[in-house]
Amino acid sequence: MLTTVIVCPNQPLLGQLKDMLTNSMNLAVARTYSHYPSVLEIAQCVRANQPDLVFIGMDMLDSALQIVTAVQAEFPGLPLVAIDHGSDRNGFIAMMRAGVRDCISPPFNRDNLKATIALVDSILQRGRPDYGLSDRVYSFLPAKAGVGCTTVAMNTAFAIAGVSRHPTLLVDCDLRGGIVRFLLKLTNHFSLQDAAQAANELDEDLWTRLITRFGSLDVLHAGVIDLSFKIEATQGTQMVEFWRRIYKTVCLDFSGDLDAFSIDRMAESKLVFLVTTPELTSLYLAKEKVRAIEPLQLGDRLKLVLNRSESKSPLTNKEIADLVGMPIFMSFTNDYQAVNNSIHAGTHIQRDSRLVAEFQNFAKSITNDGPMEGREAKGGELSQKIGRLFGRGPSVKHA
Questions:
Q1: Is the pLDDT of residue 327 over 80?
Q2: Is residue 398 part of a domain?
Q3: Mean pLDDT in the chain?
Q4: In angstroms, rounded to a whole number, what is the distance separating the alpha carbons of residues 366 and 372?
Q5: What is the dihedral of CA 335, 341, 344, 349, to 10 degrees?
Q6: Looking at the structure, do residues 170 and 111 belong to the same domain, yes or no?
Q7: How far apart are CA 307 and CA 221, in angstroms?
Q8: Do 106 and 44 share a domain, yes or no?
Q9: Does the predicted model carry a pTM greater than 0.85?
Q10: Which of 29, 71, 166, 389 could form a disulfide with 248 if both were Cys (CB 3.0 to 4.6 A apart)?
Q11: Do residues 314 and 308 make contact, with C-beta atoms less than 8 angstroms apart?
């Protein structure tokens, strides 16, 4: 049985087409829209429902063309069928040029729809749309509490959403002390805990009630602290599969406790960012975290991120890399005022800060799989004394 999504602002026509498809053509209608959804909404709908074809009304040509263009770009090969009830010839030609494969007009009848379905079948036989799960899952792990891991994860997620314009998700996975809800002044009382409890029945409608949307970025906060709550293994797997199906990029902000949920998620992440600061206690615990998660065999997927970097720091980037035992992948400037301003505003870091460009650069690097070099600094001698405290191994080369 084929599955379809219908976008048709003309509600009488929408009802007629839905009845005809379900009762006479044996098609499953996964979702209907009596309005033109945003590009983000239709992309998430297609990812969530994985239809075999999409019907799109031509009531407002510009809006219809925007959807056709977006769907074709995101899901090449997905058959699109226009619903025309009085548009001019130029409008139909524009829709066809944008990627529409066929057009139907009322009154709908079985023979015409049968011909359209036959055309769709022939297209699908040549190759179905690729609805594979996204592999862009990025985990953020703090070396210790207070290193600004949530600030890094949150601003990276905003930067990715802004740069790519693709559906992006940020999840606060710190069930014992998550602060994303506070930082972004979120009022939605639904949280990760609710998502976990409903993991086996997550769908597009339920999900939209759980998250808070900021343009192309959706945010799911951790909820109120509940020491008795635990995410079961099956719940974690079901949630992540759902997230990977409807989002291009997923950013997970962990507590650093290395609980079972975070360990499982890091093991399946494309990249894991270990966030530290130049302070010795942070560097020591960063080295300990590297040792602790070694059994995951993350290899090159584990990247060291230096937060609150300062040019006057006693340790150079190379010395920090030597102490932790891995190269610095990215470093972020220490700009207390910019971070504090963003907290007061309840948003990500904006304008008048080097951090804006740094997070954009970081986002472009990881989403395009390009290399990123940490900022190099001149050598010093302090690390020779500190190294004995850390029991460090041989020096490492920068990425």
A1: yes
A2: no
A3: 89
A4: 8
A5: -80
A6: no
A7: 22
A8: yes
A9: no
A10: 166
A11: no
